[in-house]
Amino acid sequence: xxxxRDRLRAATVKEISETARRILVEEGAEAVTxxxxxxxxxxxxxxxxxxxDSHRELLRHxxxxxxxxxxxxxxxxxxxxxxxxxxxxxxxxxxxxxxxxLAHPREYALLFGAPVRGTxxxxxxxxxxxxxxEFGWTFLALFLELWQKKPFPVPPDEEIDPAxxxxxxxxxxxxxxxxxxxxxxxxxxxxWVRLQGGVSLEVFGHLEFALDDAEPLFELMLSEIxxxxxxxxxxxxxxxxxxxxLAG
Length: 248
Known about the structure:
Blueprint: H1 4-27, H2 34-41, H3 45-48, H4 55-79, H5 86-103, H6 105-112, H7 122-149, H8 162-176, H9 182-203, H10 215-228
Helix pairs in contact: 1-2, 1-4, 4-5, 4-7, 5-7, 5-9, 9-10
């Protein structure tokens, strides 16, 4: 059982994180300083060092909390799919990822812009990395489920660029720890680059030179990715397009 002191500390840490996020949203990442947070909370900056050793350590905790929030929203989107099948799950989680990103552009920039590095505590770095990995597994788990139910076409090892092959093997064996053909890992990364890259361009305003509304382009991308994975593309609010649908 936590002591009263532990509960007070946890409440203060939560308030610090919430204050940091509010400043992030209102003023941008560069404004999230220990001094600014202390001023908002009616504390002195040195007092915050009882909770965080550095500005970077604080940001890593904010990053971890944001990844946890985003992951929860993606899981909720998956669980709301009725009837549950892999095609609808893939589309639901992809669309929710974009919706969250557009609704939280500065939070998204903190997660997927320049990474926050160099924390003074390995424990805090591990916390942020663990939250990021949990987010990543949301997408990878769908690929694993799809591959197990109905393997989609992937290139054999000898057809993958040797320089890429080495990196894919390292990523699979050391980071993911899964038993999958390297072609599956390559396909996963190709799809993720298209999905996250397209969302990033939209969030950061790099499509505004041509598009006022990038959603049709995003949906076009989903319609192109889906059949590659043996999935059925369903337009938002519309009937499914012709093709196989995998229950899951």
